[in-house]
Every structure is written in structure tokens, then in C-alpha cells.
Amino acid sequence: MKIKITIPVAKAKEIARIQALRLSEKTLARSQATNNFLTDIADVILFITHLIKETFSRKFELREFFHQCYLIGYKSLPLISVTGTIMGLVLTIQSRPVMVRFGAETLLPGMVAVSLIREMGPVITALICAGKIASGMGAELGSMKVTEQIEAMEVSSTHPMRFLVVTRVMAATLMIPLLILYADALGILGSWIGANIKGEVSFILFSSQAFSHISFIDLIPSLVKSFFFGAVIGLVGCYKGYNAGRGTESVGKAANSAVVLASLLVLIVDMIAVQITDMLGK
Hints:
Largest sheet: none
Order of helices and strands: HHHHHHHHH
């Protein structure tokens, strides 16, 4: 026996009206998200345009630039030293049993050197710098934004974009490639230490075997993309901090989002660089 349920006309109209309201709310939320996305893209374009304009201005803040180079480069040396040494040490310890099994132990220094210089050194060092430098820039500029120090600089005609942002982006663009080269050198040293754990080889012989497998096609692309890594890290950190909200909670959000976005963009830039290098190598 079938039971037929009838809904009064007024009730059906009420249900239809509620469903229409829900659909309109979803449509409004989607349109709002699209508008926010387009607004963020426009803000980024305007920020980069202003940055480029202030970079090539006549009054470059040279003293602040050297100060930021000191903070970004020298202050990061202990962390990069540990990271670079551990990279080479771990890569050698993990790869040595496989190389010995195939009778290719003499190729171990070259394999480690090429892996460090072409991919592992630049990417891992850039990710470490994204966590340290981008978060520091985001938190520092975000706190200045919250305490209205940036507005005070604008009122006093100090040009905060030139003094705060340009110097940090240029310092990161210059110093991060140097930190990457430093990490690569320590990675080879750590690889030599790892090779001597279960064997004995002189550093001169190990380094000659390592550098004999390195060519300009290995060094130049990694060096070029290192400059892009530095520019991306500095740009993201400064943008997130410079455009932070008004509350004190926004300082933590700016630092956190700067780390996440900078790390993601580093991986994207590395993927693009690998594709370009592969096309040029054919």
C-alpha cells in the first residue's frame, strides 16, 4: 500500500524560497571570492610596479641595503652551515651502499656534487631561507604597519617603499645565491666526511673527483634560479608584511602566510627552471 504525502502550497513556497536564498548565498560567496582573488592580483601588480619604480630611483638607500645584507647573509650562516653539511653527509651515507653494490663507488663524489649543485642545494637552502627570512620580513614590516610606523614615514616623506622594501628585496636577491653557493661547498665537505665514515679518501682526491663531473650546464642554471629564489623570498616577505592588517593578530598571519607562499613559489620557480633547462639541453 503506497502512502502519498502532500505538502501544502504555502509550505512548498517557503521551501522554494529557502532553497533560492541558499543558492543566492552560494553565488554571492563565489563572486566575493573571485573579487578578492582579482583584488589580490591587482594589489600584487601595483606593489611590484611601485617596487621597480623605487628600485631605479636616484636616491638608493645604500646604508640600509648593506645592513640588510648583513642581517640576511651573515646572520644566516650558522643555520646554512648546518644545513649544507647535513645535506652532503646524509646524501653520501644513503647513496654509498647502492654505489658499492654496483661497483661504482668512484662515481659517488661526482653524483653527490651534481645533485647538490643542480637541485638539492638551491632548493633546500631556499626553503630554509624562506622559513627564516620571509617570516622575519613579514613579522617586522607587519609590526611596523600595526604600530603605524609606515604611515609616519609616509607623512615625514621618508619613502617607506624605498627604505623598507627595496633594500630588503635587493639584499635577499643578492645574498641568497651566495648562501646557496656556501651551502653547496659545505655539502661537498659533508659528503667527504660521510665517505670517510666507512672508508678512507683524501679531500684533494675526493674534491677532484667531484668537480670533474661538474660543467657549466650544471652551475649556470642553478645560479640563475638562485637569484629568482632570493627575489621571490624577499618580495613575498615584504608584500605580506607591508600589507598586513591593523590588529596585532595580523602580524602572525603575515609571517605565517609569507613562509607558506614563499616556499610554494620557490618550488614553482624551480619546476619552471628545470623545464627550461631541459628544453635548452636538448
